[in-house]
């Protein structure tokens, strides 16, 4: 039998555990890796599952350096960033982030052997002042300080990790995954490097719920927004008229949508809204034909 999802979370999944830990040692010292499709392993008991992780019975598949470079490029990592790599293996991603981009980095892995290896690789690369490696359960890690997150975990693990990423990471934080997606959370960007897929998500601000604002004509608008990751729909009313919110989009803390009359899918756009969420309010601009007006929406 396979361990339940709950048990998977308790253990935390590392590069070894998931058969794909995000990074490898330097290319000169990395063992040859045969490109193959990573299948989720099966275990007879939770004890066997944990033992496989520590003994490295699950195959360790390092990320090619060119894929690492593209992951960091896609996340636009700079010297101002703190990169968290979940299931960090021997540390290649955070070491590359430090050495090539001047960023700081934290790698988290359940396997003490990988932590040792990562620390040695950091010493060799001369970046021990910028990176650290923590042995532990990635599901228990506090991600609140991260400004970029990288992953090379199985899709099932990504799905279990998804609520934590959305809850703990600040709006606008890039999350980059090698090969495995996030299910219904569609990527904001997708690249191919050789045989590798790289997915990028930008953590969206939370905008669902009830909002109030003045439209371009000064009327009071009351709206309800229903959010689905980085997109949303909604309904609104003003002076007895009903409207729909169309093409709702969230990019980090940036919010945009169109206001159209309800009941007509082909209705022309009455107003376009664009603003930024901060401290529970959205501030920005309304465009209505040739007119523009300030926009301030407050959450109920």
Question: How are the SSEs ordered, and which strands pair?
Answer:
Blueprint: H1 5-11, H2 15-18, H3 46-55, H4 65-74, E1 82-86, H5 92-101, E2 104-109, H6 112-125, E3 131-135, E4 148-151, H7 155-168, E5 174-178, E6 189-193, E7 196-202, E8 209-214, E9 220-228, E10 231-238, E11 241-251, E12 254-261, E13 271-278, E14 281-288, E15 291-299
Parallel strand pairs: 1-2, 1-4, 2-3, 4-5
Antiparallel strand pairs: 5-7, 6-7, 8-9, 8-15, 9-10, 10-11, 11-12, 12-13, 13-14, 14-15
Helix pairs in contact: 4-5
Overview of this protein structure:
This protein has 300 residues and is an alpha+beta fold. The chain folds into two domains: 5-202, Vaccinia Virus protein VP39 (Rossmann fold, 3-Layer(aba) Sandwich); 209-299, Lipocalin (Beta Barrel). The chain has seven helices and 15 strands. The chain is elongated.
At CATH level 3, the topology of the largest domain is: Rossmann fold
For the record, the CATH class of the largest domain is Alpha Beta
The topology string of helices and strands comes to HHHHEHEHEEHEEEEEEEEEEE
The end-to-end span amounts to 48 Å
Note the quaternary state here: single chain
How many runs of DSSP E, i.e. beta strands? 15
Helix content: 10-25%
Number of helices: 7
Which sequence of strands runs across the widest sheet? 8-9-10-11-12-13-14-15
Q: In terms of per-residue confidence, which ranges show pLDDT below 50 for 5 or more consecutive residues?
A: 1-38, 54-58
Quick one: overall form?
elongated
Q: How big a fraction of the residues is strand?
A: 25-35%
Radius of gyration: 23 Å
| CATH-level-2 architecture of the largest domain | 3-Layer(aba) Sandwich
> Would you tell me the overall average pLDDT?
85
CATH superfamily of the largest domain: Vaccinia Virus protein VP39
Total of domains: 2
- Sketch the major β-sheet: 8 strands, antiparallel, barrel
């Amino acid at each position: 039998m396979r361990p339940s999802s709950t048990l998977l979370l308790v253990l935390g999944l590392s590069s070894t555990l998931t058969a794909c830990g995000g990074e490898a040692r330097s290319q000169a010292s990395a063992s040859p890796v045969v490109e193959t499709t990573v299948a989720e392993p099966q275990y007879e008991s939770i004890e066997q599952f944990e033992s496989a992780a520590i003994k490295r019975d699950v195959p360790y598949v390092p990320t090619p350096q060119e894929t690492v470079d593209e992951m960091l490029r896609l996340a636009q990592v700079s010297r101002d960033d703190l990169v968290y790599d979940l299931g960090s293996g021997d540390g290649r991603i955070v070491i590359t982030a430090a050495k090539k981009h001047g960023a700081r980095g934290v790698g988290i892995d359940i396997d003490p052997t990988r932590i040792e290896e990562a620390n040695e690789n950091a010493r060799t690369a001369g970046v021990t002042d910028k990176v650290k490696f923590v042995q532990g359960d990635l599901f228990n890690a506090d991600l609140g300080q991260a400004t970029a997150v990288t992953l090379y975990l199985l899709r099932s693990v990504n799905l279990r990790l998804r609520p934590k990423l959305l809850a703990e990471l600040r709006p606008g934080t890039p999350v980059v995954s090698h090969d495995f997606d996030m299910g219904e959370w569609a990527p904001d960007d997708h690249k191919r490097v050789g045989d590798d897929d790289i997915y990028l998500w930008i953590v969206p601000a939370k905008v669902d719920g009830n909002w109030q604002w003045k439209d371009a004509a000064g009327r009071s608008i009351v709206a309800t927004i229903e959010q689905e990751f980085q997109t949303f729909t909604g309904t609104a009313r003003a002076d007895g008229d009903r409207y729909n919110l169309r093409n709702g989009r969230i990019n980090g803390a940036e919010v945009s949508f169109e206001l159209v009359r309800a009941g007509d899918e082909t209705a022309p756009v009455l107003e376009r809204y664009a603003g930024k969420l901060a401290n529970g309010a959205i501030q920005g601009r309304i465009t209505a034909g040739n007119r523009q007006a300030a926009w301030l929406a407050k959450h109920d």
